[in-house]
Design brief:
Distance between the termini: 61 Å
Strand order of the largest sheet: 1-2
Largest sheet: 2 strands, antiparallel
Shape: flat
Order of helices and strands: HHHHHHHHHHHEEH
Number of strands: 2
Helix content: 55-70%
Number of helices: 12
Length: 281
């Protein structure tokens, strides 16, 4: 029996009232949810409060979960809902303040030896910059970055969790990555620093007893695809501009306008084919 099937069985047994299975679930959920919520809030005390609230809802509502194999998306969605409710009810900004205890975690991280190719000064500067940059991101951006980079979810899984289309998940990730990269750039770090910065943030926010690979972020996880990139660029303040020359006249078009032109051209081509087909008949 593989690990996934074994976990589904554990959920099923917990739904039937098996206390030992419920205890195993709660322990597994506690470890995984702490890192997720901490990366959303960057506040240790708030994370603990939201974690307890989420675990309580898990125990109370697990019998209503119709698909045991969907346990983790269901639990993450519950945790996200609790975080959103916290900020909404208190009319708090979605930007967060790094708590004093979290600052201590940063100091502890910098005091340890790391095999990441960074010297102490560079690691300290990058750590402080990426923490500040992540804190300035909107909650939805921190959420999609966490799910994709650290929970290693596919865009389809993220979309299912968020209740949206997969393209929307890709667009949200593109814009979150773009926003974080822009902040790093403003602090003097180039595009190549984004992957390293995400890795540093992952290590910094990982549970103390996690394995070293907990903060590893692959380059593949940052890929959103051509359509996601184009759709993500449309509507952003720094939208890409393309120069198109028609009959000797150069036109400056945004990506959105280019998409309209392409769609119009495709429609015209289809109409032409249909017209020729009817004429041949």
């Amino acid at each position: 029996m593989n690990e996934s099937a074994g976990f589904v069985k554990l959920v099923t047994q917990a739904q039937l009232g098996d206390q030992e299975s419920m205890d195993h679930l709660a322990e597994a959920a506690r470890r995984r949810l702490f890192a997720y919520l901490y990366r959303l809030t960057l506040n240790h005390d708030l994370t603990l409060d939201l974690l307890q609230e989420t675990l309580l809802k898990m125990v109370e509502n697990i019998k209503n979960l119709e698909q045991p194999e969907r346990f983790w998306p269901w639990l993450f969605r519950t945790a996200l809902g609790n975080a959103q409710h916290y900020y909404r009810e208190r009319a708090r900004a979605q930007e967060v303040e790094f708590s004093s205890l979290s600052r201590q975690r940063l100091s502890d991280y910098l005091a340890r030896d790391h095999d990441d190719g960074l010297d102490h000064v560079m690691r300290k500067e990058l750590s402080q910059v990426v923490v500040d940059a992540m804190a300035r991101l909107r909650l939805s951006y921190r959420n999609v970055l966490t799910l994709r980079c650290y929970e290693q979810m596919s865009y389809a899984e993220i979309a299912a969790l968020m209740g949206c289309k997969e393209l929307r998940a890709r667009v949200l990730f593109f814009r979150a990555k773009h926003s974080l990269g822009r902040q790093l750039s403003q602090r003097g770090f180039g595009k190549g620093a984004l992957l390293t910065a995400l890795g540093v943030f992952g290590l910094l926010t990982a549970p103390a007893d996690s394995v070293p690979a907990a903060g590893t972020v692959s380059a593949a996880s940052l890929h959103v695809g051509l359509l996601g990139t184009l759709a993500g660029t449309v509507g952003t303040p720094s939208g890409i501009v393309v120069a198109v020359t028609v009959a000797g006249v150069t036109l400056t078009l945004t990506i959105e306008q280019c998409l309209y032109v392409v769609l119009l051209a495709c429609f015209s081509f289809v109409c032409l084919i249909v017209g020729l087909y009817i004429e041949c008949k």
